[in-house]
Amino acid sequence: MTDSAVIDIRPVAEEDLPAWTRAWGNGYLRPYAESSVDSIRSAAARDRLIGAFDRDRCVGTYRSSPQELTVPGGAVLPVSAISRVSVAGTHRRRGLLRRMVVTDLEEAFARGEPLAVLDAARYPLYGRFGFGPATAMAWFEIDVHRAGVDPLRTGDTSGVLLVDPREYLKAAPGVYERLRAVQPGALRRDEEWWQEATGQHVTGSASEGPEPFFALHLDPDTGEADGLLCFDAEETWEAMLPRSPLWVRDLIAVSPRAEAALLRYAVTVDWVTAVHLPYRAPDTLLPLWLGDPRAARISALSDYMWLRILDAPRSLSARTYGVDGSLVLEVADAAGYAAGTWLLEGGPDGASCVRTTRGPDLRIQVRDLASLYLGDDSATRLAVLGGTEEVRPGALARADAMFRTGRRPWSPRAVRGSRYQAGAP
């Protein structure tokens, strides 16, 4: 067995890409393909790839990408988005994950990225590095026969237009950008993302699976697209009765009218008996656009995007708060990035956060502050779990009122290629 101290943690060079890609595929049960290497090579031009190398063998992978996160109030912060994390089963319990995480977070902090985000494939791994769950996701399955949507009432789907991939590609990014500007938890989708999502640029993972259908919703007053829908479906019959499932890959709307029309369209597609709707905020209004909301059954509910605060004053002063107020937060951070006592003063119009010598109102672990940051959790709940302590009476209630938002944060995701499953990283 190789001593973990001699396993090299380093940036991935061009000649390492096939071994790095194979190691990541092994970790996530995905077959190796040359096209996957080409995809990673393209990403490596802008992303940071780290590998753990035991002599000439890659035994750990890690990728971080420059991203942008919308926070409550609409400000956009640069973040480090972490993905493709794996350690070979033959090399676990040797601190390789810790070494890769520590290396990357140090570099992110040095670059001036105040936050890091990731989708945690395993819950227990990342709390020890200061990450906390910051958004949640729900997966729905809609029983079309119970939905109470009449396909003959065309007014329910007014404004929906089926389009080809190129027409969709022209309008969809603009729709998403309008949502991203106001949706806490949203991340940027770049041009390459859209090229892959529409099949204009095919990677190894996106080349499989059925061809998707595309639809837009046009605002009847302006003619401008204000909603998008991407889905695929499978024609299935049993004893001359249709049993066809429809899988929503992406559904984004910037108006209630667009959201309702696009969902009702999906539910009224001919032959479809079940609509699968993934990656929604748990408080989504989508089921309520049906005649019978009980037809939308939650098939999975989970934490999703995890967040790590690296620069506390910059992060806390960037967002707005539900009510005017002030809090002195004593943040515990074993890695030191966000550690300190901070005076937060904020409200609906903005905020400031500076270091202070005043006594704390709350003592809070950095991972709890991450869960509080976008408004998806409450200080009162976190205190029960033990990572937050009320020092001054009333501080928990004040924190709840300041940090909570009217709607839960949501980090929109889309299904691409054949990887249609709850929580696929």
TrEMBL record:
| Residues binding acetyl-CoA | V85, S86, V87, R93, R94, G95, L96, L97, R98
> Where along the chain is the active site annotated?
Y126
Stored SUPFAM superfamilies: Acyl-CoA N-acyltransferases (Nat) (SSF55729), SCP-like (SSF55718)
Family annotation (InterPro entries): Acetyltransf_17, Acetyltransferase_Eis, Acyl_CoA_acyltransferase, Eis_dom, GNAT_dom, NAcTrfase_Eis, SCP2_sterol-bd_dom_sf
Q: Which UniProt keywords apply?
A: Acyltransferase, Transferase
Question: Keyword Acyltransferase: yes or no?
Answer: yes
Q: Per the database record, which ranges form the N-acetyltransferase domain?
A: 7-167
Q: Does this UniProt record's set of keywords contain Cell membrane?
A: no
**HAMAP family, alphabetically?**
Eis (MF_01812)
- Describe its assembly: Homohexamer; trimer of dimers.
Q: Which family does it belong to?
A: Belongs to the acetyltransferase Eis family.
Q: What is this protein called?
A: GNAT family N-acetyltransferase
